[in-house]
Design goal:
The complex is a heterodimer of chains A (263) and B (261). Helices cover 73% and strands 0% of the residues of chain A. Chain A is mostly helical and 263 residues long. By secondary structure, chain B is an all-alpha fold. Chain B has helices at 2-20, 22-44, 56-72, 76-86, 89-94, 99-130, 140-163, 165-168, 172-185, 197-204, 207-221, 224-255. Classes of the chains: A mainly alpha (263), B mainly alpha (261). The interface between A and B is medium-sized, with 32 and 31 residues.
Chain lengths: 263, 261
């Protein structure tokens, strides 16, 4: 019953965000289209690399296409549906979190879903395009890939929420939290196996880029059920940890009595 | 001279502001070292072969220098965008100094601060990664000023993109495309020497090749004639960039709708 209410509320927030984005159609399409162009231009460096060098430690261009597709689409889903997470620390330190607390809705879900970035649609379309080029997608694994995209988005969201919520204890942290997301996104588009063990440890703990792209590409290259189970259990674990940090931090929140108009 | 003093004052203010926001600077240094590390790992596992003229160590120094220029360049366009969106631009336009040159001066001040700190961090880090210094250390004498000129040119184009906010209110999508184009056509990760011929020709028709590849290759390659050729190309693009910036600004001011207040 509680879960049903949460899902209904999440759907309502999504609908409002989509309506708000679509209201300024020109700006929406321009942002989405230019973000797609941005991603493909950047990825072209890999096409140039593999034109000159056939492989990178056993990985070919199609593996990089899949990794970048997974990273882009997961990030796109995160910013389309959970962009409010990137403002949590600002709300906490400015005392403007009250509007999320004063309504009979889950405050974390409300805050996270309060904003959408239309450029995320460009990331999602880039992901779909690169998936189609990679050759790893088929009718048989399409639903699994969609689920992996959603779990990747959940990893991005959970990491952002966890870092932003440290502001309950430390004060303003927006730029540091944003840097952590940048680091996660940066690591997620490179092959995991070129890094030494201590970096790979980081990529499966503090910065979960290994779960966002490396495990999914290993699943499509060599499908085994334990890898799928590991991925989804890790996604749930990260999400639960982020919620726990938020709830602990909320006990310390002090209102700033800030008056403002919600846009 | 008095006019220049005003802009030097803005540069000093930007440097002082940058030093005050030291956590942000630390984050930038960490990001720079992280990206340089990742790219050094990519080159360490790449089968270069004997036909490739640069060694793995040279390539690590190459990406250290290209990333140095890119990460040191501040996002001046976001300041212009904020001014347009909030209406504060009217205050900027009424001042007894050029609005765009104020932003160029502030941007260059930030760039000088960041380039100094990132430059020192980059040299130490690249030495630790490769175990050796640059093959031609004397090239730093002309390479570093060239890097600073590259940063100045990047800021001029940054301001030009920011001026597009006069029409569009949001110039960031164009900036993303510009930035990624500079990465690919400027040889941020891969030196232009390994590009297919047709793509290299296209790159060399853009300012990006001179800003990134030219500056990095000047320092890594150590060829004075290449350095002179690149300096001339950077000079030409600087004149073009300044002309573009002024032209866009003149047109933009006539079109400007003031928002906020």
């Amino acid at each position: 019953m509680e879960l049903k209410k949460l899902l209904k509320f999440a759907a309502a927030l999504t609908k409002i965000n989509l309506k708000a984005s679509w209201a300024m159609r020109g700006a929406f399409l321009m942002k989405a289209f230019l973000m797609m162009g941005n991603n493909l231009v950047f990825f072209s460096a890999w096409w140039i690399y593999f034109h000159q060098f056939e492989s990178m430690k056993g990985w070919k261009v199609h593996d990089l296409e899949f990794v970048n597709a997974m990273g882009a689409s997961a990030f796109g889903i995160f910013v389309c549906f959970g962009n409010g997470a990137r403002l949590l620390s600002r709300h906490i330190t400015e005392g403007s979190f009250d509007r999320f607390l004063s309504q009979p809705k889950n405050p974390l879900l409300y805050a996270v879903g309060s904003q959408s970035n239309p450029s995320g649609w460009g990331d999602i379309v880039t992901g779909v395009f690169l998936f189609s080029l990679s050759g790893y997608v088929s009718i048989w694994n399409a639903s699994l890939i969609i689920l992996m995209m959603l779990s990747g988005a959940l990893f991005f969201l959970a990491t952002q929420v966890a870092f932003q919520c440290l502001a309950f204890w430390t004060g303003e942290l927006e730029s540091l939290a944003q840097r952590m997301t940048d680091f996660t996104a940066t690591f997620s588009v490179y092959p995991n196996h070129i890094f030494p063990d201590w970096i790979r440890f980081l990529m499966f703990t503090v910065l979960p880029s290994g779960f966002i792209t490396f495990i999914p590409v290993e699943i499509v290259r060599d499908f085994q059920w334990w890898k799928v189970l590991l991925l989804f259990l890790a996604a749930v674990g990260y999400a639960m940890f982020a919620v726990w940090i938020f709830n602990r931090g909320l006990h310390r929140y002090e209102s700033g009595n800030r008056i403002g108009i919600r846009s | 001279m008095k006019t220049l003093q005003k802009y030097f004052a803005f540069m000093k203010i930007a440097i002082a502001e940058g030093l005050r926001l030291s956590p942000s600077l630390v984050g930038k240094v960490l990001f720079y070292l992280l990206v340089t590390y990742i790219l050094s790992k990519v080159w360490s596992v790449t089968p270069l072969g004997s036909q490739f003229s640069m060694s793995a160590a040279d390539l690590v120094w190459y990406v250290t220098i290209t990333e140095w220029i890119v990460v040191s360049t501040p996002l001046v366009l976001t300041e212009i965008e904020k001014d347009v969106q909030s209406g504060d631009i009217i205050c900027g336009l009424c001042r007894p100094m050029s609005y765009i040159w104020t932003h160029v001066a502030r941007g260059f001040g930030s760039f000088l601060l960041q380039a100094t700190i990132l430059g020192v961090a980059g040299v130490i880090f690249a030495y630790c990664l490769t175990g050796q210094f640059l093959s031609h250390p004397e090239a730093l004498l002309w390479g570093v000023p060239m890097g600073l000129l590259s940063g100045f040119l990047s800021i001029v184009f940054n301001v030009s993109i920011g001026i597009s906010a006069f029409w569009l209110f949001d110039s960031s999508p164009f900036y993303w495309l510009w930035q990624k184009s500079s990465f690919v056509l400027g040889g941020l990760i891969l030196p232009l020497s390994i590009y297919p011929g047709w793509l290299r020709t296209i790159s060399e028709c853009t300012p990006f090749a001179a800003i990134l590849y030219g500056s990095a290759q000047t320092i890594v390659g150590g060829d004075p004639s290449f350095a002179l050729r690149n300096a001339v190309i950077l000079g030409v693009w600087t004149i073009i960039g300044l002309g573009l910036m002024h032209g866009l600004f003149s047109m933009g001011v006539k079109k400007l709708d003031i928002g906020g207040g």
